[in-house]
Amino acid sequence: MDLLHLIALLAALLSAGLMAGLFTGYSYSVMPGLKILDDRAWVAALQHINRVIINGRFMTGFLGSVAFSLAAVVLGCFLDDRSALPWTIAGLVLNLVSFIGTMAKNVPLNDRLEAAGDPAALADPAALRTEVEEPWIKWNHVRGTANLLALAALAWALYTTGLAA
């Protein structure tokens, strides 16, 4: 059981780290870099990114951050030493904040961009950008911060197991 818990905890830590890196990377580089684009080019860029990001590598980290954290919590409940459990639960909750925020906020905004169709045919690309850009960036900051905090909580959980020493 200890080995399975350790594997789940490490997988949760790694997937939270992948998501923290991706989402915070968007916050400090991708979105500021795209800001210089005109409205049509901005819509086109986001549409393209949203299409290509749905792949196995992304989904493994995105879904894994929650699934592996949940597995680590469940397995941690069966350990004699449960000192890591509060930190593992915190990591799970924070990964859930990111997951739920993504599904409730960022994905609908991505869907709105996709539903707009060909950026070259948009009558008012500036209105679409105004509708999507600020809330998308705001919720991206939330999910990136949540995953970063999840990473810290899971790292502390690993440390408290004594296996990291």
Automatic annotation (TrEMBL):
Keywords: Membrane, Transmembrane, Transmembrane helix. The chain crosses the membrane at residues 58-78, 85-104, 145-164. It comes from the Bacteria. This is Uncharacterized membrane protein. It comes from Glycomyces sambucus.
